[in-house]
Amino acid sequence: MKAKKRKRFRILGKILFVLYIAFLLYFLILADWYGRSRQMQDYQYNLVLFQEIKRFWNYRSQIGWVAYANLFGNVLIFIPFGFFMPMASRYRSFFLTTVYSFGLSFLVETFQLVSRVGSFDVDDLLLNTIGGILGYIIFGICNTIRRWLDADQKRKRYRT
């Protein structure tokens, strides 16, 4: 890929990344649809790893789609973060993507606790971080395919 095209690609990544972060913060903190229309009286938190995951999984037949929305939704909502972050950055590090996924999730969970518009849940931290990691893996696969196609095009150009 030529340098000019690569620069456009990186700018697109930055724009998509900013739009995604705005959507994420709105959805996780402000959206009425997600149960944010009222402030809770007490601070709600879970500091026991896998407690809420087990609860949602054990009662999935009683609560239905809500269990799946909670478990898989927390992973799915952070996949774009793990994809766009290395796309928009010069530093395409698995470690940094993991740390930033955890950090953003921690900020959101802490804000929900302090403002009492949600609860602080260590299981959400884990699931969000897994989502960021999956996004990074998808980015890595896409980037490898792009490089392979670029190299293939170069080989074809030199043959003719």
Structural features, described:
The protein has 160 residues and is an all-alpha fold. The protein contains 7 helices and 2 strands, in the order αβαααααβα. The chain has a two-stranded parallel sheet. The model has no long low-confidence stretch (mean pLDDT 87).
Defining traits:
2 strands; two-stranded parallel sheet; mainly alpha; 160 residues
Topology:
Blueprint: H1 3-30, E1 45-46, H2 51-58, H3 60-63, H4 65-76, H5 79-88, H6 94-115, E2 120-121, H7 122-159
Parallel strand pairs: 1-2
Helix pairs in contact: 1-5, 4-7, 5-7, 6-7
Q: How would you describe the oligomerization state of the chains in this entry?
A: single chain
> In total, how many beta strands?
2
Please estimate the helix content: over 70%
Unreliably modeled segments: none
Mind summarizing the main beta sheet?
2 strands, parallel
Tell me the span between the first and last alpha carbons: 19 Å
Query: Which H/E pattern describes the elements?
Result: HEHHHHHEH
**Rg from Cα:** 19 Å
Please work out how many helical segments DSSP would assign: 7
Mean pLDDT: 87
**Strand order of the biggest β-sheet:** 1-2
**Beta-strand proportion:** under 5%
What characteristic shape results from the CA principal axes? elongated
Structural class: mainly alpha
